[in-house]
Amino acid sequence: MDLQKLQAPIEKQLALLGYELVQLESAKEGRDSILRLYIDHLDGATSNRKITLEDCVAANDGLVTWMDVEFPDLREDVSIEISSPGMERPLTKQAHYQRFAGRLCRIQTKLPLNGQKRFKGWIGEALKDSITIEEDGVLKTVPFEIIQKSRLAPFDEDKTPQPRHVVALRTHIPDVHEDAGVETSAGAEETPWQP
User: How high is the pLDDT of residue 183?
Assistant: First the structure.
């Protein structure tokens, strides 16, 4: 299954249904192939509405009908799972970093950057081709092209020293316990992020 080939058409169809594709991934569970979609509302950055079970059902119904026409063979071989991004939501686009500026995230890179592949820092500036984070009081710039995986780290915010350089960005960020626009899965228990 070619995720790059599927991503753009799925993003377009979800947008017609009122949702943003946050992340698309494939998985194997036994003999079953699964296409996992994490979705948000298109206006998620401004509305802070959470993804509900009803949203997942609506997105699933709209996608399945469309996929039966556009990708009829795919549905014979693959199951589809749709859920919210959860508390430790993936950060896959520049807009995600801009939306969550001042929040703590974990980043894993494909290649070492100054001998380091794993970062945990406060999100600073998101430019066209890189993200700046503050890790242990040091500003670090990570190019988007080498990011393999990135997620918010809300459960570590209270026990991580507060940033010195991105503190101005945090003035508009609500307390992590107020959700800050981060969705939780409807009826599902969240699992910790594992690199």
Answer: 43
Q: Which band of pLDDT confidence, cut at 50, 70 and 90, is reported for residue 71? A: confident
* C-alpha Rg value of the chain to the nearest Å: 17
Instruction: State the helix-helix crossing angle for 3-17 and 53-70, rounded to 10 degrees.
Output: 120
Are 16 and 61 in contact, with CB atoms under 8 Å apart?
no
- Domain end, chosen from 52, 83, 114, is at 83
Give CA angle at 180 (131, 43), nearest 5°: 80
At residue 15, the pLDDT reads 95
- Residue 174: predicted pLDDT: 44
Domain assignment of residue 174, given as a range: 94-178
Q: How far is CA 1 from the centre of its chain?
A: 21
Which CATH number characterizes residue 102's domain?
Answer: 2.30.30.180
DSSP letters, 116-176, are EEEEEEEEEEE-SSEEEEEETTEEEEEEGGGEEEEEE-GGGTTTSPPPSSSTTGGGGPPPG
Burial (0-12, 13-18, 19+ Cβ within 10 Å), 85: buried
Q: What is the CATH number of the domain that holds 59?
A: 3.30.300.70
Quick check: is 187 in a domain? no
Which structure tokens are listed for 16? 């017609």
How confident is the model over 93-121, as a mean pLDDT? 94
- Mean local confidence (pLDDT), 68-87: 88
